[in-house]
Amino acid sequence: MSNPVIVLSKLRREFPSGGGSVVALKDIDLTIRAGEMVAITGASGSGKSTLMNILGCLDRPTSGSYRISGHETASLTADELAALRREHFGFIFQRYHLLTELSAVGNVEIPAIYAGEAREKRRARATELLARLGMSDRAGHRPNQLSGGQQQRVSIARALMNGATVILADEPTGALDKNSGEEVLRIIDELHAEGKTIIIVTHDAAVAARAGRIIDLSDGIIVSDRVTKSVAAETMRSGASAAGQIVRTPALWSWRLLDHITEVFRMATLSMAAHKLRTFLTMLGIIIGIASVVSIVALGSVAKQKVLSDISSLGTNTIEIFPGKDLGDVRSTKVRTLVIADAKALLQQAYVDGVTPTVSTSTTLRSGPLEASALINGVGEQYFSVKGTKLAAGAFFDAADVRDMKQDVVIDENTRQTFFGDDPDGPIGKVILVGKVPCRVIGVTQQQQGGFGSSQNLSVYLPYTTVQARFLGSSSLRSILVRVNNNAATDDAEQEVIRLLMLRHRLKDFVILNTDDIRKTITSSTETLTLMIVAIAVISLLVGGIGVMNIMLVTVSERIGEIGVRMAVGARRSDILQQFLIEAAIVCFVAGALGVSVALGFGAAFNALVPKFQLSFSWISIVAAFLCSTGIGVVFGYLPARQASFLDPSAALSRD
Ligand code: ADP
Ligand code: MG
Question: Is 0.85 topped by the overall pTM?
Fold first, then answer.
């Protein structure tokens, strides 16, 4: 006699039901030897499927012992049981349990994928098996393009894929017509003749009669166990092989990693393609989230840059030095200590980009019948670059004009409107009277954009030398305006200015106004803006992520059957976990790509419609969006994927 492959003793399986429990198998003792063909019969509900599931390691007994070739299964881990299913058992189900999105050959291959077999090898073997079962011309067909009998032959090929030694068939002909059923039974007979151990559940006496041994179950108890053909004779003929070497295939994380990963990707994309609408809906949240994040970041940075450039055009990176002990010192106009030599000394400093002395007075402007009072700014040639003032027309005066005390004036927009508002030729080259001094208009400044500079006052700019000589009759300065080098810290520059002037004056007869403080205030408010943008981004991505999780959870519960099939043919928990995680990651990655495209499209439309602002998308924000969306897939896909991987294979299969 051959070796016992399967030994059950006092095996019991109870299912919790209501408060108590249903006992599906009551202390079963059973031994099955290698090469036997055993039929299990019994009325519906007698426990046949429960027994098959336990034999095939899809389910665990409540108590009692199940040994496979002498190894106790109770102590095996989930992955070791998966290895047994993968290497030693082949399942044939009443309802075939093929995966609908895969072709016949794709279905046959699955067990070999989980065994880590190379692609060409398993493809060749799957094709060969299908050919042997007369399915060559149907290898590329999907299950729904095949008849029941053909589907069952595909599932038989799948059962044989990894060279199973024990074939478990749960009513394999139950859903088939007579001819197809006969065909399937003939194949099973053949497999038996080759030496496979066959266990077949049936309630058809004719089917059972083909087996050498018939076990009759009733209410979870074996009521009869008859040998109808000599087992010894059969095993002599076949040289049956024993099952049950527990092969510990290394986990696939390290095993043929690349091949495995491409396989997982292929499976994931196939199932996404099979459920386009669901996939798209899953993506929608992420698409909207990423698109809005990327555009908000771009909009925000444009707004921020605009604010910052406005600030710098107001000349905030400047230090202004006034004579006197305090700001508003009444005697300051009489203090004559701030002189042009101070300005020249300051210009030599490394941290200084530009210096301009200023003097000021006010007087009346006249041109023909028009007259208006105006602020007269006497400034150096660097004043405009220090202040960041831009011209609407004409030019500024230069160093030579300042030296020569030229009577050239740059007027502001208010002055232009007042005196030359309806002059078609514009003001350039015209002469106006500043007080009693005739001056040639050489430039018009742009209106200051918002903020501090704009007012209704008229303001004109003359070389400070001209103002000193013609209007003030004094060589002292109202202030010195210093533009600090962008690379220097304004606070440090302020200390340096104080040190330098103290050296020159020997006492502190000056006051410093550091406009950087204003910039700091505004910068901090734009930082608040950035923070708000980031908060909105995080919230919208979180919402997208939760959407993904929801739909993935639904997906998992929709695909419990598929998960059960994969587990039945030997998928490890980690395989299932990876599959769902990678699906979630791919969905979110693709959604991220679509989201970024939407944002770029929005940007292009925005730039076309609002030419004043040009949106530009930073590579960093795009790459970050991708990383973020993929990360969301992994993080929010994890829970559903884990839930899928912890499903119980027999429960998953029965929920169909
Ligand atoms: P058969 O395959 O012989 O028709 P089963 O093995 O499916 O019978 O079922 C045997 C008994 O166990 C039945 O009473 C059935 O209601 C019960 N049973 C089977 N599976 C479950 C389950 N998952 N939960 C609760 N009861 C179950
Ligand atoms: Mg059943």
Answer: no
Q: Is the CB of 45 under 6 A from ligand 1?
A: yes
pLDDT of residue 583: 85
Claim to verify: residue 498 and residue 528 sit in the same structural domain: no
Tell me whether residue 255 is in a domain: no
Q: Are residues 138 and 31 in the same domain?
A: yes
Task: Specify the number of domains making up the chain.
Answer: 3
Closest ligand 1 atom to Cα of 47: 6
Among the listed residues 378, 453, 392, the one whose alpha carbon sits nearest the alpha carbon of residue 420: 392
Longest Cα separation, the chain = 135
Strand ranges (E), 368-505: 370-379, 391-394, 408-411, 431-434, 437-445, 459-463, 479-484
Statement to judge: residues 382 and 460 lie in one domain: yes
Nearest of 582, 596, 641, 607 to residue 266 by alpha carbon: 582
Secondary structure (3-state) at 32: strand
Residue 174, domain extent: 4-246
Shared-domain flag, residues 467 and 401: yes
Give the model confidence (pLDDT) of 614-625 as tens digits.
Answer: 788 888 888 888
Least confident of 83-92, 151-160, 625-634: 625-634
* Domain end point (choices 514, 537, 552): 514
Q: Residues 477, 381: contact at Cβ < 8 Å?
A: no
User: 199 CA distance to ligand 1 centroid (A)?
Assistant: 18
What number of other Cβ atoms are within 10 A of residue 520's Cβ?
14
262 inside domain = no
Classify the phi-psi angles of 163: left when phi > 0, otherwise alpha if psi is within -120 to 50, otherwise beta.
left
Q: Which of residues 529 and 584 earns the better pLDDT score?
A: 584
Contacts of 67 (CB under 8 A, 6+ apart): 6, 7, 73
358-365: average pLDDT: 90
Instruction: For residue 431, report the distance from its CA to the centre of ligand 2, in Å.
Output: 108
For 170-207, what is the HEC assignment? ECCCCCCCHHHHHHHHHHHHHHHHCCCEEEEECCCHHH
> For ligand 1, atom 10, which residue shows the shortest CA distance?
47
Of the candidates 518, 498, 500, the one whose C-alpha atom is nearest the C-alpha of residue 510 is 498
* Same domain, yes or no: 49 and 78: yes
Q: What is the pLDDT of residues 492-505, one digit of tens each?
A: 888 888 888 888 88
DSSP letter (8 states) at residue 506: S
- E strand map for 18-52: 20-33, 37-42
- DSSP characters for 549-616? HHHHHHHHHHTHHHHHHHHHTT--HHHHHHHHHHHHHHHHHHHHHHHHHHHHHHHHHHHHH-TTS---
Q: Which of 11-25, 479-493, 553-567 has the least mean pLDDT?
A: 479-493
Residues 505 and 485 in one domain: yes
Q: How far is the CA of 649 from the centre of ligand 1 (A)?
A: 15
Binding site membership of 40 for ligand 1 (Cβ less than 6 Å): no
Q: For ligand 1, atom 17, name the residue with the nearest CA.
A: 24
Amino acid of residue 81: L
Collapsing DSSP to helix, strand or coil, 346 comes out as: helix
Which atom from ligand 1 is nearest to the alpha carbon of 220? Answer: 10
CA nearest 572: which of 16, 115, 105?
115
What residues have CB less than 8 Å from 512, skipping those under 6 apart? 319, 320, 321, 322, 494, 497, 498
